[in-house]
Design a protein that fits this description.
- With about 140 residues, the protein is mostly beta strands.
- The chain folds into 2 domains: about 10-55, Rubrerythrin, domain 2 (Single Sheet), CATH 2.20.28; about 60-135, Beta Barrel (OB fold (Dihydrolipoamide Acetyltransferase, E2P)), CATH 2.40.50.840.
- Helices cover about 5% and strands about 40% of the residues.
- It is built from 1 helix and 8 strands.
- The protein has one helix at about 15-20, and strands at about 25-30, 35, 50-55, 60-70, 85-90, 95-100, 115-120, 125-130.
- A 5-stranded antiparallel sheet has the order 6-5-4-7-8, with no helix packed on it.
- A hairpin with a 5-residue loop joins strand 1 (about 25-30) and strand 2 (about 35).
- The longest helix has 7 residues, at about 15-20.
Amino acid sequence: MTGKPIPVANPDTAVFWDACNEKRFLIQSCKSCGENQFYPRAICKNCQSNDLEWQEVSGRGTVKTFTVVRHAPSPAFKADLPYVLALINLDEGVSTMMNVIECDVEDVHIGMDIELTFELRGEQYIPQAKPISKG
């Protein structure tokens, strides 16, 4: 056990977290208005319809903004210091917060192309971002 927080699924998020354990990242798409949304919820944030479906994303996006965390919010994150917490714009038009891993914190920049990867915490895979491989 890492000591880092592990999400607890609820009826709105269980499908998402199950997909993460298959190393797939899902967003919701509204069948009524066509809007994509993330984070998972029971109704469309645009039109309030509950006619939502899940769709797998490409796994690619860009860094919109970020911060370098140099002081751990809890002892569980101390070994990761420094690390990057970023707002990621996915190619499908939704944004999500995640860590940028597998690179030096000084290499992260706004507009950086990323792809999704997953970090195992306990028995749950957590989505993270990493620079797109050049090769």
